[in-house]
Amino acid sequence: MADEVTSRGKNYSIIAVLGMFSFLTALSGSSTNLAIPKIAIDMDISSSMATWIVQIGLITTAILLVMFGHMGDILSKNVVFLAGGIGFLVGSAITGFAPNYAIILFGRVIQAIGSAMIMANSMGIVTQYFPDKRRAEALAVISMFISVGSISGPGIGGLIISASSWRWIYWINIPLGLIILWLGFKFLPVPKESWARVREVMRGANWTGQNLFTIGIIIFFLSGTFFQSGRSKFLIGLAFLIVGGLISLGAFFQD
């Protein structure tokens, strides 16, 4: 009975770690949408340039989700997840302290890489630690954290932006994330993978498929730029949409 209680307590702690990091990544994404006008004014950039602060994060996450999920399966889901947490915090710090537009984009890419590592492995970690009869409930809790984080952006993000600088929507991730990371390293065992093993996994990855998927996603996203330009570039946008979609789908059939 004592072992069962201890195991259940550990599982609740794991859910808290997974859920809170999922909450932070979702909150940061939805808050960034609100911060775009403020960032555009602060950095003296056009609204179309400012939208890339959001889009570059979406593109990066979409491109890397499958790859990081594969890495988690081969190496360790815990390792990739916790590394993603570190990357997310580093990206948040870079974005928050960014002196110009280019550094903001760079920080958002790093943040999105971390988010992709978290998102790709959080559900898999649940399957490792929760038995079948409780797995669906645990997965639902993680999904709830993501949903709450997304819908909290207008409230929490709006409060932060109204009360202070837009930079605080990124700075706030740092102390909260450090606490979650500490809990993560405490409750998620981290196997000691040698760098030789990491290099072996990277060499064995399907880079052709990954590169095709990357190209396809970028082309797919660029279609929106042409659609926003009006009817004169509608056909170009449609071509980008179709070609990008086909290349992205084709990447999954590439061995």
Walkthrough of the structure:
- With 255 residues, this protein is an all-alpha fold.
- It has two domains: 7-198, Growth Hormone, Chain: A (Up-down Bundle), CATH 1.20.1250.20; 206-255.
- It has helices spanning 2-43, 47-74, 77-97, 101-129, 132-163, 168-171, 173-187, 195-204, 207-227, 234-251.
- The radius of gyration is 20 Å and the shape is globular.
- The termini are far apart.
- The model is unreliable at 1-6 (pLDDT under 50).
- It is a multi-pass membrane protein.
Biggest sheet statistics: none
Kindly state the mean pLDDT as a whole number?
84
- CATH homologous superfamily of the largest domain? MFS general substrate transporter like domains
Estimated structural class: mainly alpha
CATH architecture of the largest domain: Up-down Bundle
Distance between the termini: 48 Å
**Structural domain count:** 2
- Looking at CATH, which topology of the largest domain would you report? Growth Hormone, Chain: A
* Unreliable sequence segments: 1-6
Q: How many helices in DSSP terms? A: 10
- CATH domain class of the largest domain: Mainly Alpha
Kindly state the percentage of residues in helix: over 70%
Membrane topology: Multi-pass membrane protein
GO molecular function, one term: transmembrane transporter activity
Keywords: Membrane, Transmembrane, Transmembrane helix, Transport
Main location: membrane
